[in-house]
Backbone:
């Protein structure tokens, strides 16, 4: 099982637009999302992420370079996984109950929570709005643009966005999770993960393959 220590940054009321500079100042290192789990989908864009927390919020920063980019989803809770999309799946108790934070390159967010194979309701509009986002490409939808593109996304996820649990903060917690990059309807579909997945077909909703996340 892969392991990741998530460093605590002493900051409060962090804006998504400030995440990159804050992580730079704190020396937060990038981790690759580079596992090609399925030979039928060999394309491997360059993807890396870094993660930290402030106690009451999780900070995420993704950087992607890929051969084309797409952001067709018009609003939150849309089909963002069909676009140029980065994802964080998080299991607070380390079991099969998890949350999927999926964000396309135009900062449209999908968030569901529940057990694998069970009822997984979407987050309310209030919860979705509580997750701050910054996107280097802006927030307007667009059709696929072919040609190498580098883009970045930053998210500030409050503990309250884990909306079916009562989690006051991330301090000292041990959770499980995985980080992904996909683009189901890009000219070259791809499905990359941080922690490897041993399944015959592309599937990210598989908490049995999550890695361990240790919060300082």
Residues:
């Amino acid at each position: 099982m892969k392991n990741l220590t998530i460093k605590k940054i002493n900051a409060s009321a962090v804006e998504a637009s400030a995440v990159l500079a804050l992580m730079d100042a704190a020396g937060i290192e990038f981790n690759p999302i580079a596992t090609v789990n399925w030979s039928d989908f060999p394309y491997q864009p360059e993807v890396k992420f870094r993660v930290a927390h402030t106690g009451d919020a999780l900070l995420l920063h993704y950087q992607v370079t890929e051969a084309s980019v797409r952001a067709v989803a018009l609003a939150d809770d849309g089909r963002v996984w069909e676009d140029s999309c980065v994802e964080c799946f998080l299991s607070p108790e380390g079991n099969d109950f998890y949350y999927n934070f999926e964000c396309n390159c135009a900062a449209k967010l999908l968030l569901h929570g529940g057990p694998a194979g069970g009822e997984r309701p979407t987050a309310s509009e209030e919860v979705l709005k509580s997750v701050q986002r910054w996107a280097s490409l802006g927030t307007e939808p667009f059709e696929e643009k072919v040609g190498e593109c580098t883009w970045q996304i930053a998210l500030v996820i409050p503990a309250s966005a884990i909306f079916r649990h009562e989690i006051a903060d991330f301090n000292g917690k041990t959770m499980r999770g995985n980080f992904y990059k996909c683009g189901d309807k890009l000219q070259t579909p791809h499905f990359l993960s941080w922690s490897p997945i041993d399944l015959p077909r592309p599937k990210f909703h598989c908490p049995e393959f999550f890695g361990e996340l240790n919060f300082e």
Summary: The longest strand covers residues 142-158.
